[in-house]
């Protein structure tokens, strides 16, 4: 399994530009890494409140949605995790 840790902090670790290798080394990610991740990942784990940002990408013809997490990641509404597997 390969994980992409910079995305765990979502927008807090996203940089709109910069050297990709240097950004990754210090825990950041950019548009180039985002495109690579979207093209290569077999699974996508998304908080329900952030699903709208990816719904045009996570289409039923390309992905199966697996059962959602039974509890959220925090006490906030929308923190249930949605899990998608590439077909």
What does this molecule look like?
This protein is α+β, with helices and mostly antiparallel strands. The chain has two domains: 1-41, no CATH class; 42-87. The protein is 18% helix and 17% strand. The protein has two helices and three strands, in the order ααβββ. The chain has helices at 20-25, 31-40; strands spanning 43-47, 63-66, 81-86. A three-stranded antiparallel sheet has the order 1-3-2, with no helix packed on it.
Structure at a glance:
The protein is an alpha+beta fold. The chain has helices at 20-25, 31-40, and strands spanning 43-47, 63-66, 81-86.
Euclidean distance between termini CA atoms = 17 Å
Q: What is the total number of structural domains? A: 2
- Our count of helices gives 2
Q: SSE order in H/E notation?
A: HHEEE
- Spans of at least 5 consecutive residues whose pLDDT stays below 50 are none
Rg, alpha carbons: 14 Å
Strand content range: 15-25%
Secondary-structure-based class equals: alpha+beta
Q: Kindly report the spatial arrangement of strands forming the biggest sheet.
A: 1-3-2
Number of strands: 3
Global shape: globular
Q: Give a short account of the largest sheet.
A: 3 strands, antiparallel
Kindly report the average pLDDT value: 90
Question: What's the helical proportion of residues?
Answer: 10-25%
């Amino acid at each position: 399994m390969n994980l992409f840790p910079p995305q765990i902090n979502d927008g807090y670790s996203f940089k709109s530009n910069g050297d990709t290798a240097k950004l990754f080394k210090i825990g950041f990610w950019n548009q180039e890494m985002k495109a690579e991740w979207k093209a290569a990942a077999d699974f996508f784990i998304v908080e329900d409140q952030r699903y709208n940002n990816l719904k045009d990408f996570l289409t039923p013809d390309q992905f199966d949605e697996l059962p959602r997490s039974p509890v959220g990641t925090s006490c906030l509404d929308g923190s249930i995790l949605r899990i998608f597997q590439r077909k």
